[in-house]
TrEMBL record:
Residues 6-134, 160-259, 269-378 form the Alpha-D-phosphohexomutase alpha/beta/alpha domain. It comes from the Bacteria. SUPFAM superfamilies: Phosphoglucomutase, C-terminal domain, Phosphoglucomutase, first 3 domains. Its cofactor is Mg(2+). Belongs to the phosphohexose mutase family. Pfam families: PGM_PMM_I, PGM_PMM_II, PGM_PMM_III, PGM_PMM_IV. The keyword Phosphoprotein applies. PANTHER family: PHOSPHOMANNOMUTASE. NCBIfam families: PRK09542.1. Residues 383-456 form the Alpha-D-phosphohexomutase C-terminal domain. It comes from Kitasatospora cystarginea. This is Phosphomannomutase/phosphoglucomutase.
């Protein structure tokens, strides 16, 4: 039996093709997915990576071999797959490695209505089944199913996806805007033209050609070097804003008219304010907004100022979606530019967040930097990684350094969070590397730098 723990992560399947997995394993994942979920029908989509069509088709064949009728929607963004799962009320599988380099691929799986499949919600059982069918030499032998073979059909969901998003944001009265979009040769190049069609936008496209080898830059806008081209183009053409999507186009980063990045926390606060107003207009007395513990203090402050309820969670989409379901939250945001909407089956969609930014900017005469200034109240360090062999010992040393300080609180919801009157930091271990990740926020840059340097001195010895 082959050990697949390095391939099957906490939330998805992710690895190098063909070294770590190939079509035979993908076929087994399709069969195991149907076996574990009991699905009678499944929707499957894929991104633009060279290996995606064959892997996606193999999964579909595996699912059909275990009796499921498979709807193949072909090229799509991850949130387009979530739309299909929600609109058709079917479990789904999306073939993508998101922002990873070209040699990687993966599968994001969900139950009907885009409900997540993670280690605690079926992924571990799927992995164990595939392992039991796979010999140590990589040979896969799927046992025959009792059910009659299912069917394979194709369907185009792009227009339906666009129409659904546009039904959730009122863009009818916005002023004309010039917007630069960097698709990074990823799936934004597929979805943006259809979603933006007919809106009063002067669209300046960057890298819209679908190319899973990523010839221009990595499709990972979390890394500042991948925003440089977009920032320059926004300034060059005098655009009102810029938008950058990651490889599978489920995350969106925003650049203001000066070419400066707008923090995902500021976008979370902006969209939260709009979703609170929309929920209130529909009669909801105290809407709930979810934010992870690394988003800025600005987010819960804005939410409370608007009479709504902020709920703080761990980092990660499974925790966000779980808490959204438990609280019936209208919206959730993360520091990594994942944005979750109740009206989008609690799934994350960067495109819907982008439409909210366009609606907010186009609904008033000011610039984006002016609009977002009220949502940018603190100085943040960004994520700082330190290579640490003994993560637990380093974290314990930091905890000890702050445990007896007056007016300081500590919690361990996710890693270690330490907060003073006008500053806080979070220290979290990486799940996959010997790293500790530090995020610091304070009332001003000087205080932020002081706290940052003090913590790093303990972490790095």
């Amino acid at each position: 039996m082959r050990d697949l723990t390095q391939l099957v992560k906490a939330y998805d399947v992710r690895g190098v093709v063909p070294d770590q997995w190939d079509e035979s394993l993908s076929r087994a994942f399709g069969a195991a997915f149907v076996r574990v979920t009991g699905a009678s029908a499944v929707v499957v989509g894929h991104d633009m990576r060279p290996s995606s069509p064959a892997l996606s088709r193999a999964f579909a064949e595996g699912a059909a071999s275990y009796g499921a009728d498979v709807v193949e929607i072909g090229l799509c963004s991850t949130d387009q797959l979530y739309y299909a799962s929600g609109a058709m009320d079917l479990p789904g599988a999306m073939f993508t490695a998101s922002h990873n380099p070209a040699q990687y691929n993966g599968i994001k799986m969900c139950r009907a209505g885009a409900a997540p499949v993670g280690q605690d919600t079926g992924l571990a059982e799927i992995r164990e089944l595939v392992e039991s069918w796979t010999a140590a030499d990589g040979t896969v032998e799927i046992p025959p199913a009792e059910a009659a073979e299912g069917t394979l059909t194709t369907r185009d969901t792009l227009r339906g996806y666009a129409d659904h998003l546009l039904s959730l944001v009122d863009l009818a009265g916005i002023r004309p805007l010039k917007v630069v979009v960097d698709a990074g040769n990823g799936m934004g190049g597929h979805t943006v033209p259809t979603v933006f069609d007919g809106l009063p936008l002067d669209l300046v496209p960057l890298y819209f050609e679908l190319d899973g080898t990523f010839p221009n830059h990595e499709a990972n806008p979390l890394d500042p070097k991948n925003l440089v081209d977009l920032q320059a183009k926004v300034v060059e053409v005098g655009a009102d804003l810029g938008l950058a999507f990651d490889g599978d186009a489920d995350r969106c980063f925003v650049i203001d008219e000066r070419g400066e990045p707008v923090s995902p926390s500021a976008i979370t606060a902006l969209v939260a304010a709009r979703e609170i107003a929309r929920a209130r207009a529909a009669g909801e007395q105290q809407p709930v907004i979810i934010h992870n513990l690394i988003t800025s203090w600005t987010v819960p402050e804005v939410v409370r100022e608007l009479g709504a309820e902020p709920v703080r969670t761990r980092v990660g989409h499974s925790f966000i979606k779980q808490e959204m379901a438990a609280t019936d939250a209208v919206f959730g945001g993360e520091h990594s530019a994942h944005y979750y909407f109740r009206d989008f089956w609690r799934a994350d969609t960067g495109m819907l967040a982008a439409l909210h930014v366009l609606a907010a900017l186009g609904g008033q005469p000011g610039t984006l930097s002016e609009l977002t200034a009220e949502y940018d109240r603190y100085a943040a360090s960004g994520e700082i990684n330190s290579t640490v062999e003994d993560q637990a010992a380093a974290t314990a040393a930091v905890r000890a350094a702050y445990a007896d300080q007056e007016g300081v609180t500590l919690d361990e919801l996710d890693g270690l969070t330490v907060a003073g009157a006008d500053w806080w930091f979070n220290l979290r271990p990486s799940n996959t590397e010997p790293l500790l990740r530090l995020n610091v926020e304070a009332k001003d840059p000087a205080k932020m730098a002081e706290v940052r340097d003090a913590v790093l001195a303990v972490v790095r010895g």
